[in-house]
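Q: Study each token:
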Amino acid sequence: MDCENKEKAISELKDEIEVVLSIKDDITQDEINNFKEEFSIFTEKEIRQEISKLTQNEKYIEEYSENINPCKQDEIENNAEEIDDVKEYKIGEKSESKEQENINLGDTIRIDRDKINEAILKFKSEEAPNEEIQKENIEISDAILISAIKDVEENLSVNKTKVEDEKNYDTDDDIKIKEVKKPEKVSYEAKEVEDIEPGRLPENIRVIRGEVKYNQLSIDWDWPYGVKKTLILYRNDKFPTKPDDSSAVKIIVEKNYGETIGQFTIHKIKEENYYFCVFPIIEANGEINYLEGKRRLIVSKSPSEISYELKVKRKLFYGIKAVSIIFSTSSEEVNMPPTVLIAKKGNMPVFKSDGEEIYKFDYIKIGKHETVEVEIPINIIKKNTYIKLFLEDERNSSMFRIIPPAKRELYFK
């Protein structure tokens, strides 16, 4: 795979990871397995590395190192390759033996006749007690010869029939060759007609891709097997929960002949969040059913800015009496997501992982030009330490921006 295609695949993987993380705080092994199925060009280790980069949490790499022995994994992969080679060899060997059997069938009758004639001549050359016994033995030998030749001819006929059947329909334990018919030509204007294989269920959408450009928002997806229509729902406050969500905007997109990628575009957008949910539509026997929707969040508005400052009350002679953090915003009313307070000795923490988490704030509602004061325990503050506030879920950085005070105000001597 060239670099351009690989970068595109990495981008799609990141988008899919962000969608999962926009709904929940952690990614399970089952979800990682789904990523492996959707993005087969990446190994589980590579997928876990991308998750760790986005979450800045090394636990995903550590779990992989604990559960998977790299040497053992290589051995398993090598054994799998050897099994494939052995299977291919056995199939070829069987085919070759059939050809050899077909070639030798024509000589079977000749070989059996020679052996029987040789046995009869040897029998005739032996001395008999008298002419009558000798004549009787010759007659028995001729009868044996005729019966043997008849049996050989019957076996030859059966084998020839078997070989002809095997030529027309060659089978192996796990392989069946089926006749492939050329599709009939259909005009481009006609809708694509797909034959659903018996027992095979329609599939769900795997990945939804999104882009905001020139005041337009576009999403697209790969049409899954057995799906010719999708119901698109979107809201600006949260994800639609079901197809009949009365607060969502609804659009139906149909698949055209020869089309592999579905697409939907909003040509004029607002500076808001767009929460999409795309439901594949299944029509059968006059009934309409929906598969589980696939979600995608597209952010098109500037992030809300939230400022904070420290308020420290000191004792009369020495020490700290109380510490509070005061939050404010110049935006409209904001529901600030969970944040964490990170401490680092001797220097300012740059990232959330660049220090020790000492306190966590839950959702805080802040009005425009209002302040919210929250007191924190003084026993979590240590000497010669800097503290700084970070968003707990870094995916929220596209919607919120935390603005700290001056560096000297975050230091505790």
